[in-house]
Amino acid sequence: MRARPRLTVLSGPSGVGKSSVLAELRRMGPDIHFSVSVTTRKPRPGEVDGVHYHFVDLPEFHKMVANGELLEHAEFAGNHYGTPREPVERALAAGTPSLLEIELQGARQVRAAMPEARLVMLAPPSWGVLVDRLTGRGTEDPAVVARRLEIAREELAAEPEFDEVVVNADVRSAATGLLNLVVGPVPGA
């Protein structure tokens, strides 16, 4: 008998490779519901409403919060972000595992709203590797990098709050490890 599908929450510090691991997981083609967040920020060039985000204005976002329509929500850099509850619950009711990629505070909110959710931390192989990844980009001001590293240290310190840890030393291996947690071991993966 197959276990009831559950919600899996992926979180980890900036620079750990969440986007790369999720892109690889999507390429693997599993039957997983990938949540699409709601945001109040304006779409960037090439972003499609309902694919990258659900773009809403601030009054609509506040209405969603007040009506309990979001599993979690937060403000970041002057914009609001949240995870719609209904699509996640619909996927789970249909027997499809659901996966969210959110930051630590959001993961804590989901744990409070859905205690049965599995929280997975994506971790770097070492602190030095994470520092290299963030400084190696060369695209951000050193003060911004320093702040990201400070936040990363806090996020990694929260590891005991998570049910599982997947180390991203190799994107394919990390994606396979995450896939096994979300849907169970996959033959040939």
TrEMBL record:
Location, primary (coarse class): cytoplasm
InterPro entries (UniProt xref): GK/Ca_channel_bsu, Guanylate_kin-like_dom, Guanylate_kinase, Guanylate_kinase_CS, P-loop_NTPase
Recorded superkingdom: Bacteria
A single GO molecular function term of this UniProt record: GMP kinase activity
SMART domains linked to this entry: GuKc
Binding-site residues for ATP, renumbered to this chain: G12, P13, S14, G15, V16, G17, K18, S19
Alphabetic keyword roster: ATP-binding, Cytoplasm, Kinase, Nucleotide-binding, Transferase
A Pfam cross-reference name: Guanylate_kin
SUPFAM superfamilies according to UniProt: P-loop containing nucleoside triphosphate hydrolases
Localization annotation: Cytoplasm
EC number: 2.7.4.8
GO cellular component terms, semicolon-separated: cytosol
Domain Guanylate kinase-like: 5-183
Signal peptide range: none
Chemical reaction(s) catalysed: GMP + ATP = GDP + ADP
HAMAP family: Guanylate_kinase
Family, similarity comment: Belongs to the guanylate kinase family.
Function: Essential for recycling GMP and indirectly, cGMP.
Protein name, as recorded: Guanylate kinase
Gene symbol of the encoding locus: gmk
